[in-house]
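One thing: could you explain this record?
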Amino acid sequence: MIEVGESSILQVSHPRFRPNYEPSKRRLTWPNGAIAISYSGDEPDQLRGEQHDTVWIDELSKFKYPKDTWDNMEFGLRIGPNPQVVITTTPRPIPIIKNLIDDPDIKDVRGNSYENIDNLSEKYINRVIKKYEGTRLGRQEIHGYILEDNPDALWTRKIIENNRRNKAPQLIRVAIAVDPQATDNIMSSETGIIGGGLSEDRHVWILEDATVKGSPDKWGNAAVTAYHKILADRIVGEVNNGGDMVEYVIRSIEANISYRSVRASRGKYTRAEPVSALYEQGKVHHVGSFPDLEDQLCEWVPGGKSPDRLDALVWLIYELMPDMLEDAFVVEGRSAGKRATAEQDW
């Protein structure tokens, strides 16, 4: 919003009215004395006690805590005769976006990518707009429509929303799962990196989505960083595509890290079904919001693009709940159909 890209505040400001930016203070100050402070959707409590007359929120639907951030912001929107807020966001079908659109005090202005086509690169038009035109995702990303649940997907947004929590309890096991990309080029998928833990009541708590696109060194460092961030006990990595590459990459970054390889013996949909059933039973909770992961869960159907985040989530939950291993995949040479116990695994 402030620095990056041709449309950022610093880039579009007239030289004579360019604000002074102090990153350490998260503050912009204009020549006329107007001041703006930046805040993060990952830390809604930053907004407590603040007051303001104008707010710009970018990508509200991507915030980790969108409702808490909105509520704290609105409590402080109380200065001047006409306090206002403008939101620029992809219209993901989450409750706060739907509620805002239905609010009579909110003016809903929609635009599609074709209205901005003259400012887009030819490569972007050919690779992204033409690729997704006519698809469900294209209706959201190109045309700005709010999508309802895909009836062929294993997850629904309502179930994920009902199980969402702001904080996890004490966890007895914590892990990171890595679903590596097979190649590293412009057409490659991302490397799914999902972290979470298991509580004593055998509920799973999703804590981290560190998924990245890039070289093995990049995703290896992202996985190790996430491992330490959530104090994980182990990293698990799929070897179907990458062979022993995942372990090699992880150990080249940190040699003594706890690591295990897993190999699929069933298709993605078959592996994912029992995990989606746990969501339906209210046993998997997202701590905060993970927009890209949740989009993939609620949109992926067999035959679609390889679901990197979904795959990593599945490996994570199987690792945390070893009694679900039966017939799901092979772990360290064990045959499919043999059940590994918690004592064996941990």
Residues 9-110 form one domain.
